Amino acid sequence: MTFMKISSNKPLPEKFSKKYNELFDNEQPLFIVTGDLTLDGAYGESALCFTADSIYAFDDSYPEEYERVMYEDVKEAKVKRMYGNATFDAYLNGGSKKKLIRFTFAAANVADAGADFINGILDGADPAELLDAVEGSFLKQRSFCPKCGRKLPSPDAECINCKGKGRMITKFASYAAPFKKGLIVSMLLSVFTTGMSLIPPYITGYMVDKVLPSREMSMLIRMILILLAVYILQYTVSAFRSYILRITGDKIIIGMKKDIYAKAQYLPMSFYDKTSTGSVINRVNSDTSVIQNFVLRITQDAVVQFFTLVGILIIMICLNWKLTLFSLLPIPLVVIIGRFFGKKIGPRYMRLWRRGSAINTLLTDTIPGIRVIKAFTNEKSAVDKYDAYNDEWLREDNQVAKISSIFPAFMTFLVTCGSLIIWFSGGSFVISGAKGFSTGLLVSFVSYASMFYNPVNFFANFSDTYQNTLASAEKILDILDAEPEHDFGKGNIPDRIKGKIEFKNVNFSFDRSKKVLSNINLTIEQGDIVGIVGTTGSGKSTLINLLMRYYDEYEGDIFIDGKNIKDIDIGYYRNQIGFVQQEPLMFRDTVFNNIAYGSSNPHVEQILAAADIANAHGFISRLPDGYDTLVGERGIGLSGGEKQRLSIARAVMKNPSILIFDEATAAVDSETEHLIQEAIERLIRGRTTLMIAHRLSTLRNANKIVVVDKGEIIECGTPDELMALKGKYYKLIQIQSMGEQLRRKKEEENFE
To answer: Which of 103, 193, 530, 634 is most exposed, with the fewest beta carbons within 10 Å of its own?
Structure first.
């Protein structure tokens, strides 16, 4: 028997599987909530299976391992939270209460969804909508690692901290692979400089044992000259290595930044609904630098330190194996403390990252919005908020600093104690005149031991670097591993898009908990001019967003000329739609390039013609540098109407089959509205046009009106038909007519 996948927060405990198979031989539960405590409060296993008419509770305390409760016998279902645990309670019609299972707070949210499902069924709600809400809760639950609690890039994704460390290293090492020549050369030079650094301690011991007792000045000068040559060669090669490493590292980070930015362009709008702009900027700039340092440490320092460790260990064993054993005494303690430190510092680095990201988000909100801040004299409040965010970052950083400062210092102390052990044991052997021990040997060995502890220190402190990198890597992989927009019809390009649009049984919800659009059925013929009206939040813009394919996770179908829009190449499809938004975005570039945005190799004549159609040529000609005038960030220096007309000119350049205007005249004065309306009338001739408008005067050319309310189309027809209905559209016309009459009277009486 084949079963569909059942939503659950964890797999059903194996010990209940036999009873589960007996109960659900012919049907399946709708979803399962698995608990992690028994009813008596001990750590164990339990589960709730929800069906269309009843709930099955599994626990060892039940005589037959389970108990069934019919929904018709339940008055209300609740999750009761207590100290450290919670219970799922069913309040029965007879007035009694039954505890079904017990669990920790890890399962509390999905249990809440189960209780809401039962209560919704009792209230007569649509089971399909209730199940959508439950599924949304399970998705949120599965967005966190059940083991370490870290947020996952997507539901059920592999946790980098717990399982994906090798994948992370492989992923970022791939950016270093194209530059392996520079890295290999740098590594060989590192090995060379490491070898050179091993010579001076040996020469020092030789000078103490041979040169100084012989009192030969010429030999002393010869040894000093050899040391000088070694130092010159060592540090010259080291400088050249640093240069190669710097250039290679820059190439690696640029490649990574390019990939992250490119991937960010193709992510769906749902990603940006949940991710702040400042967070994305932080990943592109700061986190890539952290990854760069880590990749270089892995490919360079770690390798060099490993060879240094092995090389010095061999030399130390050759010099004296007894002293070598004494030098290794602190190592086990260093390893144990290092593992403990890694577990402590990791979550703190993640919290520190979030604080830094919040600061960047605040900056991206407030700096572009400086005009609003000044208009509301909110400078002090903005400064106070920024100070508070920085203070939070500082508090978190202080916690990180305490651990990350104490740990290396303590490690260094342990390592230094190793040198003291060598001095004590070696000094005792020298003083007692033990065979094979000399002052020069001891001096050389102490020098090598000091060098030996450097790589030991490096690997002991590597956990700090790794945990910091892990926090950044997770956020970068959120983008690199995120699923891009689906282009189901890639390469499927129709000969022409004429412009007939059909919505068939379309339902949409952002988070599966509440439908934003319900049962949308709408047909728009080629060349129709359709006005979409409704109150704020009714779903007008969401309807357009679905048509633009900003969101694909909807029920039902949307067709263009009889073809499902998901089956058309997404790049070609969007290129056939001209979209003029309520708040058009202008880039920091020339007026010419802002109009030409999205057009390949446009001619000057095309730009001039587009500006003329959009009623923009006049004001552009009056600008200081005309079409070469640099537009400020987000269009600073241009009025709202001027930006809107540039946006219309940009749409003209696409020569689209379908035009969409989203409140194109909502924020302009009457004179500017007239200019924009003229431009729109020129542009829409012969094209299917959708116009969202609050000002119903904008819709005077519309041959069809669609009224949206609470996510549903409540009226649809010609303006005359809807006026005859005297419904929602009629009321909106009446209200706006009264407002227009009042405005005219105020103008006649010269009232301000």
So the answer is: 634
